[in-house]
From TrEMBL:
Gene3D superfamilies: 3.90.1150.140, Uncharacterised protein PF07075, DUF1343. Residues 270-420 form the Peptidoglycan beta-N-acetylmuramidase NamZ C-terminal domain. This is DUF1343 domain-containing protein. The keyword Metal-binding does not apply. InterPro entries: NamZ (IPR008302), NamZ_C (IPR048503), NamZ_N (IPR048502). Transmembrane segments: none annotated. It holds the Pfam family NamZ_C. It comes from Dyadobacter pollutisoli. Residues 1-23 form the signal peptide. Residues 68-266 form the Peptidoglycan beta-N-acetylmuramidase NamZ N-terminal domain. Keywords: Signal. GO terms for molecular function: peptidoglycan beta-N-acetylmuramidase activity.
């Protein structure tokens, strides 16, 4: 990992780390605010993805003299520093910080409401957009000239940051304010698969008529929202996009900061589109352990599997997990070779089918009424058919056929909004 230093002012400096954590640092060239980390003496020579945020020369001067709102969380970094701290040091006038699910610093548990506050480091008001308030108010929008969106997404329909994107685009369109998107790679960008959301199943974990894994970056998704007329009254949000350099949808990308408390490893991020549907079953996905979304299990699967784990209450991650304090038996996917899934390019259904067939009390496998920690499998899948098909013993091949022609239509439509090959 190379560390770059750039001048913030005559006295302030920030170190910019262009790669992932746990690498060895060495001093690199000095870069001023007018430069881009995509310049020839920067990391572009190594042909690694350069996030929009790291290309400071492409947008910092554009922000000068403007009152800025910014929608960010712990993944919003320039190098290895929080973007808010970096931009304030560069003289950008950030008026309001907006935070999504898990909060501005990313420390709230799954589904927890996050209160408004004042960021202790900068003194800037921080407004939560996860709870009663889904989008900035007219008064909050009136106080800014421009909104920045810089949040790492993982490419799944039920990951709520794309919903937040839509809500804030709506507020920008209503107020005739521009949204500046500092784009980031989609770690699951290669994957476009799953049932397309049925209209009657719209919810907080599925707002848009897209498959489980949509295969878009945040900026591409924003263009789709505009292009498909998904904002109320087909309003349009004015967008300015700072693209990721050296990126394609098949470029491997290891996240430098984990996107939420229960996606705390690269393996969990890669497995997430494939096993989040287990939240609509009696099977734990490892919430309440330090290996969430990399293990699967339930108490009644004892004797069917040798591997076991016991969910516990963990503050800031899962405080009331499914099967709390009860040993669960199932699958350990921490070392599963994801190349098998990447080669197939499909949502992996075999684990869901296998564990349903292994479960001794099948009537309770999808019965969310037995636990408030369970989700709605129909809303997670985006269709009522998947549960019925698994119960009926329909083959995986036939299940996949039932996703057509909607999936093929989406894939064709998606091409209109691609920024990257």
């Amino acid at each position: 990992m190379k560390t770059f230093l750039f001048a913030l002012s005559l006295t302030a400096m920030l170190s910019l780390n262009s790669n992932c954590v746990n690498s060895t640092s060495q001093k690199g060239p000095t870069i001023t605010e007018g430069d881009s980390l995509n310049s020839p003496h920067g990391i572009a020579a190594e042909k690694k993805p350069v996030t929009g945020a790291d290309q400071i020369g492409e947008y910092v001067r554009y922000l000068k003299g403007k009152k800025v709102g910014i929608l960010v969380n712990q993944t919003s970094i320039i190098g290895n520093k929080p973007i808010v701290d970096s931009l304030v040091a560069l003289g950008v006038n950030i008026v309001t910080i907006f935070g999504p699910e898990h909060g501005f610093r990313g420390t709230a548990s799954n589904g927890d409401k996050v209160s408004d506050s004042v960021d202790p480091k900068t003194g800037i008001p921080a407004i939560s957009l996860y709870g009663k308030q889904k989008k900035p108010t007219k008064e909050q929008m009136a106080a800014i000239d421009l909104m920045i969106f810089d949040i790492q997404d993982v490419g799944a329909r039920f990951y709520t940051y794309i919903n937040t994107l839509g809500h804030v685009m709506e507020a920008c369109a209503e107020s005739n304010k521009e949204m500046l998107i500092l784009d980031r790679p989609n770690p699951n960008g290669y994957l476009v698969d799953g049932p397309v959301l049925e209209d009657h199943l719209h919810s907080g974990i599925g707002m848009y008529k897209i498959p489980i894994s949509h295969g878009l970056t945040i900026a591409e998704f924003a263009q789709m929202i505009n292009g498909e007329g998904w904002l109320p009254n087909k309003m349009q949000c004015k967008l300015k996009i700072i693209k990721v350099a050296n990126y394609t949808h098949t470029t491997p990308y290891t996240l430098p900061v984990m996107p939420s408390p229960n996606l705390n490893t690269q393996q969990s991020v890669m497995l997430y589109p494939h096993i989040c549907m287990f939240e609509g079953t009696i099977v734990s996905q490892g919430r309440g352990t330090y290996m969430p979304f990399t293990v699967l299990g339930a108490p009644l699967l004892k004797g069917k599997y040798d591997f076991s784990f016991t969910p516990k209450s963990i503050k800031g991650m899962s405080e009331t997990p499914l099967h709390q304090d009860t040993e669960c038996y199932g699958l350990d996917l921490r070392k599963y070779d994801m190349k098998h899934i990447e080669k197939a390019g499909q949502i992996h259904l075999k684990w869901l089918i296998e564990m349903y067939n292994a479960y001794p009390d099948k009537a309770r496998f999808f019965d969310r009424t037995q636990s408030k920690q369970m989700g709605d499998i129909d809303k997670l899948a985006g269709t009522e058919n998947l549960k019925k098909q698994i119960i009926a013993g329909v083959s995986e091949a036939e299940i996949r056929k039932s996703w057509e022609p909607e999936l093929s239509y989406y894939k064709a439509m998606r091409k209109k909004y691609l920024i990257y090959p």
